[in-house]
Design brief:
This protein is mainly alpha-helical and about 230 residues long. About 60% of the residues lie in helices and about 5% in strands. Strand 1 and strand 2 form a beta hairpin. The mean pLDDT is about 85.
């Protein structure tokens, strides 16, 4: 009973996480559509427009991509070519999957280091030392602060003014600081590393035999065939 309860809780937590991710992605998509539609109406109907609209949609699209990459890995939605690995033996397929997993984790780790070092410049945080692998944190210098960098068009909302004394020495922002939209770089990279690691663990445990290969097209064809066979019978 305890094992069943633990499994049920894990599935419930996984479902909650899925719903949170899917809700965030849906909200981003909805905001992109609303802002773009509003801008089109204002431009062609009233010869006006949202000055900040294009920049906002650009940031939202970047957030969508970075969140979508990790979500696609989790749901095995990324397309892949598995014609070669399907003709090899099961032990060889497992070995190749492990190699792919190691390479993907290594790539995500490098991406996380690079994205952190880039974002840290704008958040008054130290970059990592080391060319490929972080060997520590650099010593922060006042001249290296970049928190005063702002975006081009998106005005600073009043409900975010509380960050000014924390990160900008109390100076007011006219536009939102760049570290806010850029934070998705390390967050998205960390999520990608997490998803790659989870997929790797599933391969090690024998819960799946490929890394990230989607058979969405074949699955839909099979569903259509099954539906037709049911109708004919």
């Amino acid at each position: 009973m305890s094992n069943q309860g633990s499994t049920f809780r894990k599935r419930g937590l996984s479902r909650i996480i899925d719903e949170i991710e899917e809700t965030i992605i849906a909200i981003i998509l909805a905001l992109m559509v609303i802002i773009t539609f509003t801008n089109v109406v204002l431009r062609y109907g009233f010869n006006s427009g949202l000055i900040w609209g294009l920049e906002m949609v650009t940031f939202l699209f970047a957030w969508l991509v970075l969140l979508g990459i990790s979500y696609g890995v989790k749901k095995k939605l990324h397309l892949g070519v598995d014609a070669l690995i399907n003709i090899v033996s099961t032990p060889t397929k497992h070995f190749l999957a492990l190699i792919v997993g190691i390479l993907c984790i290594f790539y995500a780790f490098l991406l996380l280091k690079g994205s952190w070092d880039y974002w840290a410049n704008f958040a008054n945080l130290p970059q990592t030392t080391g060319r490929w692998f972080p060997t520590g944190l650099e010593e922060m210098k006042r001249t290296s602060y970049r928190s005063w960098y702002e975006v081009n068009d998106i005005h600073m909302p009043n409900w975010l003014r509380w960050i000014e004394p924390l990160i900008n020495s109390g100076d007011a922002y006219e536009k939102i600081p760049r570290f806010i939209p850029y934070v998705m770089l390390p967050v998205g990279s960390a999520l990608l590393l997490l998803r790659f690691t989870q997929a790797m663990l599933k391969i090690i445990r024998g819960q799946q035999d490929t890394f990230i290969v989607s058979h969405e097209a074949e699955d839909k064809v099979e569903k259509i065939k099954e539906a037709k066979s049911v109708e004919e019978s």
